[in-house]
Structure formats: structure tokens, C-alpha cells
Design a protein that fits this description.
With about 190 residues, the chain is mainly alpha-helical. It is built from 8 helices and no strands.
């Protein structure tokens, strides 16, 4: 277990990420407008992932001189485990979407539900770019943050508690009530 990663330090990184994210989104929306954000959603996502999420995590790791391999659990993946993860992901995703849809159903009685800004790809190159931006970059950056830094910090409280707590953080992290229960379930 990585002794340099602390619970308080990981919570501070989460707080810093949250503050930067809220300020960044607010300032970006005020300066450029919501239409600019929607028209440049891939750029916004990349900035969120690599600057707002990944930079604080990496800076914390460097400041603490923490072991990257240990904290982020860089190990050789057993093919059978990779297959099991893929199968579980495919099976769990519809459940996560159902949970989000239940929330959307109830929220529609409270107010309007904004449309999701991710564009629908028109051809194969757009699909490839969309997958890289919306699936691969979050998979890397968000997993390093949650399953790396936060999970390592919370493991001192027990594995089950660590998984549940980081799953809740993962849901909160998306800053979207319509996308809360799905990420908690997947987390």
C-alpha cells in the first residue's frame, strides 16, 4: 500500500478538482457563451479530462513522491480478467442507463431536462474521434483519479468501504443529477 497517499490529500485533490471545474465551466460559459461550448464540446471535454482532472492528480503524486505503479496499479492484465471486465461492463451498462432514466423520469416533473451536448457522429472518422474524446480519454483520466488516487487513499478503511465511497465520489464527480446513479453503479 502506498503510504505517501493520504486520505486528506486525496480529498483535497477532489476538492481542488471540483473548485477548478466549477470555476472553469462558469468562466468559460460567461466568456465564450453556451453555444461556443456546445459547438466545441470535444475541446471542452479534452480540457476537462487532461487539464482539470489529470493535472491535479499528477501534481499531487509528484509532490508526495508517490509510487505511480503502486498507486495506479499498473500491472500486466491477465487475458481472462480483461474478458471478464469487458463482459461485466457490457452487462452493467444497460443497468446504469436504466438507473439514469429513472432519475430523468422523476426529474421531468420538477423541470426541463437539458439535452446532452455530445454530438452524434455522421461517419466513421467522426465516430473514431468521438470514441477517443468521449470514451478513451475519460477512461484514462477518470480511472487514474478514482480507481487510482481515491481508491488507494480510501483502502485504509477497508476494500468494500473504499469501493463504495469512490463509487459515490464518481457519481458526484459528474456534476449531473441525470447522470448520477449510473456512474455510482458503474463505479
Amino acid at each position: 500500500m502506498n503510504k505517501k497517499i493520504t486520505l486528506t490529500g486525496a480529498n483535497i485533490v477532489f476538492f481542488i478538482f471540483s473548485a477548478i471545474f466549477i470555476v472553469y465551466q462558469t468562466v468559460f460559459t460567461v466568456i465564450f457563451g453556451e453555444k461556443f461550448l456546445m459547438d466545441n464540446i470535444y475541446l471542452v471535454v479534452l480540457i476537462n479530462e487532461f487539464v482539470v482532472i489529470l493535472v491535479p492528480v499528477l501534481l499531487y503524486m509528484l509532490i508526495k513522491k508517490a509510487n505511480f505503479k503502486e498507486t495506479f496499479r499498473f500491472r500486466k492484465l491477465d487475458p481472462i480478467h480483461g474478458l471478464l471486465v469487458a463482459l461485466l461492463s457490457v452487462a452493467a451498462y444497460p443497468v446504469a442507463m436504466m438507473l439514469n432514466n429513472i432519475v430523468v423520469y422523476f426529474l421531468q416533473f420538477v423541470g426541463d431536462i437539458p439535452a446532452q451536448p455530445i454530438p452524434t457522429p455522421g461517419d466513421l472518422p467522426e465516430l473514431f474521434i468521438g470514441l477517443l474524446v468521449v470514451a478513451v480519454s475519460p477512461a484514462i483520466c477518470e480511472e487514474l483519479f478514482h480507481r487510482g488516487l481515491l481508491l488507494s487513499a480510501y483502502e485504509r478503511r477497508g476494500s468494500m468501504k473504499a469501493v463504495v465511497i469512490t463509487a459515490i465520489f464518481f457519481g458526484i464527480f459528474h456534476f449531473d443529477m441525470t447522470n448520477f446513479l449510473g456512474p455510482v453503479f458503474l463505479g
